[in-house]
From TrEMBL:
Keywords: ATP-binding, Nucleotide-binding, Transport. Its main location: membrane. It comes from Kaistia terrae. It is a peripheral membrane protein. This is ABC transporter ATP-binding protein. InterPro entries: AAA+_ATPase, ABC_transp_ATP-bind, ABC_transporter-like_ATP-bd, ABC_transporter-like_CS, Oligopep_ABC_C, P-loop_NTPase. One of its GO terms (molecular function) is ATP binding. NCBIfam families: oligo_HPY (TIGR01727). Residues 7-255 form the ABC transporter domain. Belongs to the ABC transporter superfamily. It is found in: Cell inner membrane. PANTHER family: D,D-DIPEPTIDE TRANSPORT ATP-BINDING PROTEIN DDPF-RELATED, TRANSPORT ATP-BINDING PROTEIN.
Length: 337
């Protein structure tokens, strides 16, 4: 494992057995059904950086987040953190969820919620030291000492997310897995929480795995983006490269769904159709039924992942080259006639 990496993921897969119960299967002659939520994903996350995973609902993002914090075990492949379990035997990866309210005990005061992991892990000795640390953590996330006396229901969604960040920081993590941390929040509050996360990253050298269905949300917060479709990464690149020159048709279509204030009249191809079921995925390239460029080979052969020297990886038989980034717009213009 490279000393620069905080996390290396190699050929990671997580399958779920979604078959009917055994007796039903035998009596009704139903086949076993396997859902490949994540199927052969590889990436590495440099220390102190933010690696975002984006894609539509059901593509496997949350399953990767859960694998990262040990809530799922891989069916195949590996996920290695640089720090391992740490010298003190504890994992330094913590998770921040979409719905902070569901993760905060409603009967506990905020100061007790934040103090619990400090006490559990023995990170401070004595009530005064724990209390001082709680006050420090509240300050770090922009809350007042007096907020510690209140219960979670007294806070807005954004403030609750600040509380769950403080609780995560209480464990002194090196790695935070953030699963849709802002999607339950108003747009203005989303930016505040993302800015807070970026400030904390700079201050403590944290590494983030940021999961989102929304490319616009991760654009300013991430260093690299992996775009997932039906359990696989279809394109991965440094953030600005991905936005400037998306090469997978799916990435291009996702970018086209972002309202663009600078070019509101730009021709766009809508992202048509639903994500197919991962229980019975399409043959070949699983994106082919929705792809404007699909040809016979796309229906038959799954494209391998190709890496270039600039840090881009892409799995597509017909990547959009720079000269070809506008045919989608061309198609839209043709279909409008
Ligand atoms: N425990 C499970 N048992 C069976 N299927 C599961 C389980 N967890 C996830 N899945 C399925 O795996 C696929 C990927 O789910 P996952 O939650 O990882 O996707 P996602 O991209 O995070 O979507 P969303 O944004 O809707 O959560 C989905 O089809 C989902 O129904």
């Amino acid at each position: 494992m490279s000393s620069q990496s905080a996390l290396e993921v190699q050929d990671l897969a997580r399958w779920f057995d979604v078959s009917a119960p055994w007796l039903t299967r035998v009596l009704e002659r139903k086949p076993r059904r396997i859902l490949k939520a994540v199927d052969g994903v590889s990436f590495s996350v440099p220390r102190g950086s933010t690696f975002a995973i984006v894609g539509e609902s059901g593509c496997g993002k949350s399953t990767i987040a859960r694998l990262a914090v040990g809530l799922h075990h891989p069916t195949r492949g590996e996920m290695n953190f640089a720090h391992g379990a740490g010298r003190d035997g504890r994992m330094r990866a913590q998770m921040i969820f979409q719905d902070p309210y569901a993760c905060l005990n409603p009967r506990w005061r905020v100061k007790d919620i934040i103090a619990e992991p400090i006490h559990e892990l023995g990170l401070r000795r004595g009530a005064a030291a724990v209390q001082a640390r709680v006050t420090e953590l509240l300050g770090l996330v922009g809350l007042a000492r007096s907020d510690g006396e209140k219960y979670p229901h007294s806070f807005s969604g954004g403030q609750r997310q600040r509380i769950s960040i403080a609780r995560a920081l209480a464990t002194e993590p090196e790695f935070l897995v953030c699963d849709e941390p802002t999607s339950a929040l108003d747009v203005s509050v989303q930016a505040q929480i993302l800015n807070l996360m970026m400030d904390l990253q700079r201050e403590f050298g944290l590494t983030y795995l940021l999961i989102s269905h929304n490319l616009a949300v991760v654009r300013h917060a991430s260093d690299q983006i992996a775009v997932m479709y039906l359990g696989r990464i279809v394109e991965q690149a440094p953030t600005e490269m991905l936005f400037r020159n998306p090469q997978h048709p799916y990435t291009r279509l996702l970018i086209d769904t972002i309202p663009d204030l600078e070019a509101p009249n730009r021709a766009r191809q809508p992202l048509a159709g639903e994500v197919p079921s991962p229980i019975d995925p399409p043959s070949g390239c699983t994106f082919h039924p929705r792809c404007p460029y699909a040809q016979d080979i796309c229906r038959q052969v799954s494209p391998p992942m190709a890496h270039d020297n600039d840090g881009r990886a892409i799995a597509c038989h017909f990547p959009l080259t720079t000269a070809r980034t506008s045919p989608l717009a061309g198609l839209a213009a043709v279909s409008a006639n």
